[in-house]
Amino acid sequence: MTTTPLSDAARRELMPTGALRLAVNVANAEMAAERSPGAFEGKAIDLSRRLAQDWDIAVEIVPFASGGAILADMAAWDVAVLAVEASRLDRLHFLPAFTTVDATLATVRDVPISTCLAADTEGLRIAVVRGAAYTARLERDVRRCELVTFDTPAAARAAMLAEDCDFVAGIRSTLQTLAIDNPRVRLMDDDFLRVPQALAIALDKPNAIAALDAWCAKPAVTP
C-alpha cells in the first residue's frame, strides 16, 4: 500500500523546521538508547525509520532524560514517543500504541517484601519521577507509603541506591539493567502497571494529526 503524500498544510504543522523532530525518553532503553554519541537504537528509533522511509523525510532524534522533561518542553519537538496517560489528553493526541513496557519497583533493602502492593506500607518511601506515567498511577493508587519525587529517573535510582528511599519505581527492563550492575538491587516479582507507548502530537495540529492517523492505519506500520 502506498503512503498518502503529506499535504502542504500537514507538512507545515509536522515539520516546521524542515525535519521531523522526534522526542524520545532515553531513560526508557527499550524505546531509545544512545549507544554512541548521536547514534540511537530502540523501538522508537525503528518507528522513526518507518516514518522517514514512508514519507521520504528527514527525522531528527531529540533526546530527553524523562517523559516529564518531554512534556515540559513541547516547543522543542514535533512528535514524541510517550506513555499513553489520561492526564496528558488535554494537550496531546495519541496514535494507537505500538508497544508496551512494564513498570515495577526495586530495592536494595533487606525487607520481606516481594510484591508492589506490599510496598505500600506505612513508613516506606518510594522514589518516583516527576511527570512519569507510572508516577501518576502510584499517586492514584498508594494509600500508606510516601512518594518522593525526583526530576529524572537517574536521580530517583540514586536515591534508592543510597537508601534515602526504600524503593524506586521504574521501567522493568531499565531496573533489570541496574540490577546487573548492582547485585544488591532486587526487583519485585510483579509489575504495578503495563504502560502503552505511542506517538504523540500536540492537539493544535489537525492536519498533521490526520496525516499521522492515516499513516498509522496502514497495515505496514503495525508492529
Overview of this structure, please?
The chain is an alpha/beta fold. It is 29% helix and 28% strand. The protein has seven helices and twelve strands. Strands 1, 4, 5, 6, 7, 8, 9, 10, 11 and 12 form a ten-stranded mixed sheet that branches. Helix 4 (133-141) links the parallel strand 8 and strand 9 (146-150). The protein is elongated, with a radius of gyration of 19 Å. The model has no long low-confidence stretch (mean pLDDT 93).
Number of helices: 7
What spatial form do the alpha-carbon principal axes imply?
elongated
Strand content: 25-35%
Biggest sheet, open or closed, and with what strands and sense? 10 strands, mixed
The span between the termini is 16 Å
* Sheet/helix structural class: alpha/beta
Instruction: Compute the CA-based radius of gyration.
Output: 19 Å
| Helix and strand sequence | HEEEHEHEEEEHEHEHEEH
Mean pLDDT: 93
Helix content: 25-40%
> How many β-strands, per DSSP?
12
